[in-house]
Design a protein that fits this description.
Layout: E1 14-16, E2 27-32, H1 43-56, E3 64-68, H2 72-84, E4 87-93, H3 98-106, E5 110-114, H4 119-132, E6 137-138, H5 146-162, E7 169-173, H6 178-190, E8 195-201, E9 229-233, H7 235-249, H8 255-270, E10 275-280
Parallel strand pairs: 2-10, 3-4, 3-6, 4-5, 7-8, 7-10, 8-9
Antiparallel strand pairs: 1-2
């Protein structure tokens, strides 16, 4: 039996930084989630949310799925909907890059834009309004436990196996917080001493995919006690590390990934013989039109 494309979600490479952290005696590893079929870490929860909703009988192929997204989850859901045969409506802020919008349309999704001022909060509100009007079913990546469950079942075990249980620190940018919640739960079960570090944008920074949520919009499955430390990342630090990744490591990634690597290197400078893993959320070609390169 030949595999289908969904068989290749997950099992992404874990690679060592060769130059950027060479001045430390710690190991900094990057989990290359851009190697997923739709190009980001969000492939994992997107597919899982649809599969689990099907198994529960919450959706059937004649249904339309609606979701608010800042980009990567939308692309991943559009791919998963195409695999499974669902119509897809995605709602996102208008200031998202053209690459992300075009990728969603390429998979056959309908795209609705809200203003930059309305932002993700406005997109989420509109998705729920459309569901209330009977226009489709919202999977709700921000409150759906199938989001972190995907990382508990796949990302966490992969990291444990790929580091042979030697991982000491895990660093992830926080958007929906699904990645950090699921990975934290799995890794802490293996070794409670593993440190889980979350990243949020510093005041005034605008980093695609990560947020400082107002209390009313905080993801429902986020548990603060699963994160040992939260670090604010500046726009300049994230952009600089992102460019350094491409130029000195051959890793072409997005801005939030640059933030994770910046934090990982700073941590490596403070520790002895640590094994630090940073999530590389997606690929840099998703952001070319924004001029950041």
């Amino acid at each position: 039996m030949y595999p289908t494309i969904e068989s290749y979600v997950g099992q992404t490479p874990l690679v060592r930084l060769q130059r950027m952290a060479s001045h430390t005696n710690s190991v900094v590893l990057c989990k290359l989630e851009g190697n997923n079929p739709a190009g980001s870490v969000k492939d994992r929860p997107a597919l899982n949310m649809i599969v689990q909703a099907e198994l529960r009988g919450d959706i059937k192929p004649s249904d339309r799925i609606i979701e608010a997204t800042s980009g990567n989850t939308g692309i991943a859901l559009a791919m998963a909907a195409a695999i499974k045969g669902y119509a897809m409506t995605l709602i996102m802020p208008a200031n998202a890059t053209e690459e992300r919008k075009a990728s969603m349309r390429a998979y056959g999704a309908e795209l609705i834009e809200v203003s930059k001022e309305q932002g993700m909060e406005g997109a989420r509100d509109l998705a729920l309004q459309m569901q209330a009007e009977g226009k489709g079913i919202v999977l709700d990546q921000f409150n759906n436990p199938d989001n972190p469950a995907a990382h508990y079942a796949s990302t966490g075990p992969e990291l444990w196996q790929q580091t042979e249980g030697n991982i000491s620190h895990f660093i992830s940018s926080m958007g929906t917080t699904g990645t950090i919640m699921g990975v934290s739960r799995y890794l802490k079960e293996q070794n409670p001493a593993i440190q889980i570090i979350g990243l949020q944008p510093a005041e005034g920074a605008s980093i695609p995919g990560i947020r400082r949520w107002p209390e009313a919009y905080l993801p429902g499955f986020f548990q603060k006690d699963r994160v040992d430390q939260i670090i604010d990342i500046s726009q300049d630090d994230a952009l600089h590390a992102m460019r350094q990744l491409a130029q000195h490591e051959g890793i072409f990634a997005g801005v939030s990934s640059g933030g994770a690597v910046h934090a990982a290197i700073k941590l490596a400078e403070q520790l002895d013989n640590a094994v630090i893993v940073a999530i590389i959320c997606d690929r840099g070609d998703r952001y070319l039109s924004s001029g950041i390169y």
